[in-house]
Amino acid sequence: MSTGDSVPSTRLLPGDPPGGARAIGVWSIGVAVYFTAVTFRTSLGVAGLDAADRFHVNASALSTFSILQLLVYAGMQIPVGLLVDRLGTKRVLTIGAVLFTLGQLGFALAPSYGTALASRAMLGCGDAMTFISVLRLGTRWFPARRGPLVAQFAGLVGMAGNLVSTLVIARLLHGVGWTTAFAGSSLAGGVVLVLTLLFLKDHPEGFAPAPPSRSGGGRPRARGLIAASWREPGTRLGMWTHFTTQFPAMVFLLLWGIPFLVEAQGLSRSTAGGLLTLVVVSNMVIGLAYGQLVARHQAARLPLALGTVGGTAALWALTLAWPGDHAPMGLLVVLCAVLGACGPASMIGFDFARPANPPERQGTASGIVNMGGFTASMTTLLAIGVLLDATGDDYRLAFCAVFVLEALGLSQMLRLRHRAAARERDHLVTSRVTSVHVPV
Questions:
Q1: Cα–Cα distance for residue pair 205/57, rounded to 1 Å
Q2: 3-state DSSP assignment of residue 389
Q3: Number of domains into which the chain is organized
Q4: Is residue 437 part of a domain?
Q5: What's the pLDDT at 2?
Q6: Structural domain harbouring 98
Q7: d(CA 290, CA 245)
Q8: Is residue 382 part of a domain?
Q9: CA atoms of 249 and 263, how far apart (whole Å)
Q10: Which of 55, 188, 244, 345 has its Cα between 20 and 30 A from that of 297?
């Protein structure tokens, strides 16, 4: 797949897994778990107005569902990264599948707002264990050069889970009702749990990772992994890239997209659902393009991320500043299409962290990166809910919270970019020198 001066890097390094059909099969099971988790995570996005009626809550209380879910998710990222590095992918994915399935079922049957909150927290805990595990599974089963493309494919399949929410769960919700729709969807969790237990393996035969060091005890080693990962500028650049790029689409899809389009823009629910579907489809198409570009041209990472931030900020500004009560449909279509680039751009954050950290720190570093976007999403969800209540449902003012978070993240990306690039060049030189002296 590579051309020009990148050809030498496509050789398998010693210990580099070969990939192949079996790798695709095993990895697909892990991705199926992630797909199901995303479907459950985003199911509230198509049920926000229904949840407000069912539990008799206002905008701030409604946003608490997603905020709590993301709070648990973000808070679990570093512990999950450590667990993946220590316990392996299969065990962590199994625990995650049990938790998010119970959370989705509990949400279906919840008799009160408090019980529903607890169910979303449990769902967020299980969901938190999936993506980092899938990233780790990819590094164990595929050659390193395939890393960017494999990660983008994982993100693409996750967005397909979002598509199931917008197309399937939304229709079930209005066809068979709340309890049947959410309880029925939870059956998918049982299916992927069985597949994981029966068929998933952490690594190919002959490619087992070195056993973790026990020196210094568990706690010091865990702190050391976190500290060493954080010291790398590439890890921090990855976290801020994820922070800045992911949340505009996540906030839109997870909760506030349907209310914004229906209540602020005057669209029908079916039309609003179609625009959410456009975000998801755009994400899948752009994800393939970004994955190919980053796999072939590492220098494209930062321009793609910065371009996505600039594009989403410009279109949100135009939409919110449009004179009159409603923005034109053409502008909303373009906004949703560009929001589709947010997910693929956030995956670039992992491509900054991956070469900056050795294999034994990949899970921990990925956890740090993954905290970024979900922390930004949680903050923005809360800010929009509070501003809506404070301004009498003025969506224009409430959605200005997007610009504050984007400005913060952009400043950090620009601050770290040169240090991360210099450090990555050092790692590349070191790895080339080492590979020369390793017998093949």
A1: 53
A2: helix
A3: 1
A4: no
A5: 35
A6: 17-203+220-426
A7: 13
A8: yes
A9: 18
A10: 244
Q: What's the one-letter identity of residue 102?
A: L
Distance CA 118, CA 9 (A): 48
Query: Is the Cα dihedral 200, 201, 203, 206 positive or negative?
Result: negative
Q: 282: which 2 tokens?
A: 């755009």
Query: Cβ–Cβ contacts within 10 Å for residue 180, how many?
Result: 13
Which residue, 195, 127, 196, 133, is CA-closest to 162?
A: 127
Q: Does some domain include residue 4?
A: no
C-alpha span between 281 and 262 (Å, rounded): 20
The DSSP H or E segment spanning 210 is none
Asked whether the beta carbons of 248 and 339 are under 8 A apart, the reply is yes
The amino acid present at 294, given as its one-letter code, is V
- Our CA dihedral for 103, 104, 110, 115, rounded to 10 degrees, sits at 30
350 occurs within a structural domain: yes
Regions in the chain scoring below 70 on pLDDT: 1-15, 209-220, 427-440
How many helices (H) and strands (E) would you count in the chain? 20, 0
Give the tens place of pLDDT for each residue, 212-261. 555 444 444 788 889 999 999 999 999 999 999 999 999 998 889 999 99
The CATH number assigned to the domain holding 77 equals: 1.20.1250.20
DSSP 283-315: HHHHHHHHHHHHHH-GGGHHHHHHHHHHHHHHH
Q: How many angstroms separate the CA atoms of 195 and 97, rounded? A: 11
Question: pLDDT by residue (tens digit) across 3-52?
Answer: 333 333 334 444 577 778 898 999 999 999 999 999 999 888 888 888 88
Annotate 140-166 with b (16+ C-beta within 10 A) or e (fewer).
Answer: bbbbbbbbbbbbbbbbbbbbbbbbbbb
Give the model's pLDDT for residue 211.
57
CA 348 to chain centre: 11
